[in-house]
Amino acid sequence: MTTSNRILLGVNIDHVATLRQARGTRYPDPVKAALDAEEAGADGITVHLREDRRHIQERDVLLLKEVLQTRMNFEMGVTEEMMAFAERIRPAHICLVPETRQELTTEGGLDVAGQEARIKAAVERLSKIGSEVSLFIDADPRQIEASRRVGAPAIELHTGRYADATTPTEVAEELQRIIDGVKGGLSEGLIVNAGHGLHYHNVEAVAAIKGINELNIGHALVAHALFVGFKGAVAEMKALILAAAKP
Ligand SMILES: CC(=O)[C@@H](O)[C@H](O)COP(=O)(O)O
Ligand SMILES: NCC(=O)COP(=O)(O)O
Fold it and tell me: Which residues does the annotation say bind 1-deoxy-D-xylulose 5-phosphate (predicted)?
């Protein structure tokens, strides 16, 4: 069970690639962003190779595998194509996410409870290559219990609803859901990560929750980097979460 106050920052570089793909250029290179992020204190690099390849490409993942000093967290849908690719690159961490072609971004968590046999088989297969498999789920007790049952060592709680909440009541309710989810995950013996939609203005309350292992943050960092540079954006975020996580 992870109960330390040391909280890790996983930097998601997908949206550096979004900017590149918008013009079909060679720049900006997410690989450069990853190296800058590491220099600025990132504990790991997250990439989501979407089925539609709207941002990260296979080339990015293959290069990252060669150059990262930290570790890769490879987000993927549960498809045969992705399973075979993951087996080829053997990332340190794999996060299984739900994916819909038309969605603007990952809208909800993976329905582990509704497809336990399928997710269990994927977790078993991916664990054989030495990856630590986590499941990107909503902070829902049913999904947390199912995650333990399918043998995943880790979960990542989807913080999108908290990030999108507008009224103080809604924010408090969504935060409480995450707090309860962290407690529930830890009591099931799982490593608990969190992420999606986290920003400089909403990250501290989540970073202050005891027992969270890692926060994965991307879109807000890439946006802020336009004004302060990628290293500056990562360093600011890292300082914020470390200060918030202090006992
Ligand atoms: C699963 C997750 O939360 C991230 O991969 C995030 O989704 C990346 O960005 P997009 O969802 O916008 O592709
Ligand atoms: N898994 C969440 C993630 O990697 C980053 O999501 P976002 O900060 O880009 O919304």
Answer: 14-15, 50, 55, 105
* Residue 201 labelled as part of a binding site: no
Residue nearest ligand 1's atom 5 by CA: 48
Phi, psi of 50 (to 5 degrees): -75, 150
Q: Is the CB of 158 inside a 6 Å radius of any atom of ligand 1?
A: no
Q: Between the CA of residue 134 and those of 40, 124, 175, what are the distances in Å?
A: 25, 12, 21
- CB proximity list for 98: less than 8 A, separation 6 or greater: 77, 106, 107, 108, 109, 110, 111, 136
- Dist CA 148 CA 220 (whole Å): 31
pLDDT (tens digit per residue) in 1-40: 444 558 999 999 999 999 999 999 999 999 999 999 999 9
162 lines ligand 1 (CB under 6 A): no
CATH topology of domain 8-245: TIM Barrel (3.20.20)
Q: Considering only CA atoms, which of 157, 94, 168 is closest in space to residue 127?
A: 94
Burial of 69 (0-12, 13-18, 19+ CB in 10 A): exposed
Residue 218 annotated as lining a ligand binding site: yes
ipTM of this predicted structure: 0.95
| Ligand 2 proximity of 55 Cβ (cutoff 6 Å) | no
Q: For the chain, give every domain's residue range.
A: 8-245
Q: Which pTM was predicted? A: 0.96
What DSSP letter does each residue of 31-82 carry, written as one string? HHHHHHHHHTT-SEEEEE--TT-SS--HHHHHHHHHH-SS-EEEEE-S-HHH
| Nearest residue by C-alpha to atom 6 in ligand 2 | 196
